[in-house]
Design a protein that fits this description.
alpha+beta, 3-stranded antiparallel sheet
Length: about 210
């Protein structure tokens, strides 16, 4: 039994991108409001006269665990096939499994990245003259600890921040996993990995 579907609004219940932009630009319905906010699933957006704040809350482990299970099953199957091929036909025949081992390694890497992203909280604050990107992750991810969270932060001048595009990072269960790509003072980074496409478009348009 999974409750993950209860936490995300259904596709038909999500506001359109134009509705979101209109809502934020008019201060949540009040033209004189100094601050507007928007919430959808894991996305939190706050816009004021002086700053734009985008927060991506941590996700549940459901999606990353299913992907990890598939990666383990794939590699176990390839191991059994390769072992049988070595015993029955020798190394030359077993070498045909090499592309599948590379695919299995890539699946494992993607599963680890998905699990890591699901436990992180990202925040990007853009002000008139600077930006601050902060990623909070469980201490256990960094150096093996309890429930504490560790924050990694980078900042720079507003003119150093460049909005790039919405990138497909990898595919999980035959579904594209995308994120908004940006370039800052310390290099390229991604915001919103694993969010629905509509949420990524809202984030992109707000930064734009």
């Amino acid at each position: 039994l999974s409750f993950s579907g209860c936490l995300e609004p259904a596709a038909e219940d999500r506001p359109g991108i134009d509705e979101v932009r209109a809502f934020l630009s008019h201060g949540g319905g009040g033209g004189l409001a100094k601050k507007a906010s928007y919430k959808s699933g894991r996305v939190r957006i706050e816009r004021s006269f002086s700053a734009l704040s985008l927060t991506i809350l941590p996700d549940g482990p459901g999606g990353s665990l299913s992907m990890a299970s598939f990666a383990v099953a794939w590699n176990v199957f390839i191991f059994i096939w390769t072992r049988g091929a070595l015993i029955s036909a020798g190394p030359l025949f077993a070498a045909f499994s090499l592309p599948f081992w590379f695919a299995g390694a890539n699946l494992g890497k993607q599963a680890m990245q998905s699990f890591h992203d699901a436990r992180c909280q990202d925040q990007l604050v853009i002000r008139k003259n600077e930006y601050v990107y902060r990623r909070e992750l469980p201490k256990s991810v960094v150096r093996g600890g309890g429930g504490e969270r560790v924050s990694r932060e980078s900042r720079g001048s507003r003119r150093d921040l460049k909005l790039l595009t919405i990138n497909e990072l990898y595919r999980a269960n035959d579904q594209a996993v995308g994120a908004v790509a940006l370039r800052g003072k310390e290099g390229k980074f991604y915001l919103g990995a694993g969010l629905p496409e509509d949420d990524l478009k809202v984030i992109y348009l707000e930064i734009e």
